[in-house]
Automatic annotation (TrEMBL):
Transmembrane segments: none annotated. It comes from the Eukaryota. It comes from Triticum urartu (Red wild einkorn). This is F-box domain-containing protein. Pfam families: F-box-like. Residues 2-44 form the F-box domain. InterPro entries: F-box-like_dom_sf, F-box_dom.
Amino acid sequence: METLPDDVVLEILVRMPDAPHLFRCAATCKRWWFLVAQPSFLRRRWPEDTHHPSSLLGFFAEEYRSAGPRSYKIRHVPSFIPAPSSPFRPRSPIASFADAGDIRELPLASRRGFLLVHLLAGHHRRDAYKEFNLAVCDPLSGTSRVLPTLKYDRLFRIKGCAILTGVDCCSKQQQQQQQPVLSTCSAFSKVLIIGFDNDDQQYSISMFSSDESSWRAPENCFDPSEHGIQLAPSQVNAVVCQGAAHWLFRDNSNFYTLDASVETGHATLTKLSLTLGSLGRNFRDVPRLSVTNGVLSLLALHKKCLRAQIWTCRGDKKSRGCTRDWRHTKMIKLERPEQNHTKIVHYMWAGERSGVLLIKASPYF
């Protein structure tokens, strides 16, 4: 390779299958590094008029407006703001389900490139509904599917969501065999919704399968009377791991996972051995449920973004509904931007497969 001219090496580098392979090539020697770093090469590898799986399509922006000087702020349905290179025109719906009428999309959950949205008429949003018009869309392809209306007898709130693909519903043997039929496993397969009835303080789970024409009847998740203190969900978007969708719940002192089978939708509540007290005062009181190397894990963030701690689940459930073992496995020191005096951490989001942790804190990301 040392005797090859630059133009030949560039032809080889431009054919690398993805960014990780190209990065490894660039780290091989200074010559390759300079070739890869050339703006002309980068424009050729990732043309501005095309989009690849890591393209930034845009973001949702939510407005709060006061109806009067002494009134509460009104929550508006967020608007989709496309990125400069996004194929979506400004302020337009992200898919074809909003062809007619003043329809806004409220993002609820995402997984494997799919986005679950709540379709709302008008600009204002309420806290609870009897009917939910939902859609699953693929922003990269511009395709979408409007789901049958999810109906309840009383006012309900959505407290948890999960999008399941064919990969999530395939057996481990099918995934390992990598047969051609698995090409369909990347398609949207099921949607799980955790609803909350404010009147009887009851959580229920509803399931929709792509091969069915209606939602399955809601099933109660757990008996609220078994818990002296009302449980509250800590994150809406589920984590999918080992054949189940998991949501994190908490009360004043303990954490729980609500675990729903991807096959049946049946949900059970599991108390975690990790407690709020074990986190200590220097950490946020709400960790983030995630997946690390195929294992269920918890990410806890220092209040001033100095470090992050990771606990992983070991083993299955044991008696009294507690997991067998949660072990502290890693501590990561975080480098903050210069002159960043973080006072409030609003939220953190762990990348589904990238291993990236996005933190929103005042005044910076």
